[in-house]
Design a protein that fits this description.
Helix content is 25%, strand content 19%. The chain is built from 9 helices and 9 strands.
């Protein structure tokens, strides 16, 4: 194993633990229209079940967030947490997805980079939906599956989609680590190997260590070490945008950054609207939400104090 790969747990511990300086979360004003619509809480009350379903390949339990009053045809969202993190650290985001009608499942496994146990969460939820005694019996749309991941879990999200044989329709990656930081062959991800689905890549402008936007040396020399390089290597439909001021752990903000939370500057606010709209577009066929991601003309591409590097391949 290369020497640099042994730094990953150390870096993760520094990013995920305190104490740190007090950070006041600035006001985030979503753009009027699609972003503001989906940044607001959805119409469903949410039920949270922590650790009640067993288990992934390591024995880790699964956490669930879902509409308290289930109808039929609910899309499924899988989630992969970052290194040494657990799903409840992302509670604000995952509850938000569920409030919009998605059934969210996340393994408590703290090392999700391979995608294997993210996929295990899908298998477990499908098994639940086949159990006539389960609350999910007959309630889920197995053809509408998305995956969201943070940090190592972002690599896991892409790996899960690649391994799923088309069962996962779309992925959202947040702070996808440059390949120089992946800890082993399983947790690395090769964007060029993904041949199905669609991808929305999001990184924070302040996260220059783990998920930089640009790299100084070309891919041919150092490999994929930036979001631009990831974006360029993907051949499936794709969008990339950088959230202004966000650092590595802002997605864990609840909703702002706790006083002792390192690598968090703006909180989860910016991760609510467009990611939820993306899931609505890709998994529910929401045409208005999909229009926000049309290259050049979509709402995400409008000049904004919150977003930069907006680029994509959707044409309508």
């Amino acid at each position: 194993m290369p020497a640099w790969s042994r730094l990953v747990p150390i870096i993760a511990a520094l990013l995920l633990a305190g104490p740190g300086p007090a950070v006041a979360a600035p006001t985030y004003e979503p753009a009027a229209g699609v972003e503001a619509h989906y940044a607001a809480p959805g119409p469903f009350a949410v039920t949270e079940r922590i650790g009640e379903l067993c288990c992934d390949t390591t024995g880790a339990a699964f956490d669930l967030w879902y509409p308290s009053e289930l109808g039929t045809g609910h899309p499924i969202v899988l989630f992969g947490d970052g290194t040494q993190a657990v799903p409840t650290q992302y509670r604000r985001l995952l509850r938000h997805f569920a409030s919009w009608g998605f059934v969210v499942i996340a393994t408590q496994n703290q090392y999700t980079g391979s995608g294997i146990d993210i996929l295990a969460s899908l298998d477990r939820l499908i098994a639940e939906s086949a159990d006539p005694t389960s609350v999910f019996a007959g309630r889920l749309d197995h053809t509408a599956v998305g995956v969201v991941g943070h940090s190592q879990g972002a690599s896991g999200a892409l790996n899960a989609m690649r391994r799923a044989g088309g069962a996962i329709r779309t992925a959202i990656t947040v702070e996808l680590p440059r390949t120089g930081l992946c800890s082993d062959a399983l947790s690395c991800t090769d964007p060029a190997a993904i041949d199905t689905g669609s991808v929305f890549l999001i990184n924070g402008s302040a996260d220059t260590l783990i998920s930089p936007s640009e790299q100084s040396l070309p891919v041919e020399v150092v490999g994929v070490q930036s979001h631009r390089a990831y974006y360029d290597a993907l051949t499936v439909p794709k969008v990339w945008a950088t959230l202004e001021g966000a650092d590595h752990n802002d997605i864990q903000g609840d909703p702002g950054c706790a006083d002792n939370q390192l690598a968090c500057g703006t909180g989860v606010y910016g991760f609510l609207g467009y990611p939820t709209a993306w899931l609505a577009a890709r998994l529910r066929g929401d045409a208005r939400a999909a229009a926000a991601f049309v290259s050049g003309s979509g709402a995400l591409f409008a000049p904004s104090p919150h977003w930069r590097n907006q680029t994509g391949t959707f044409t309508g």
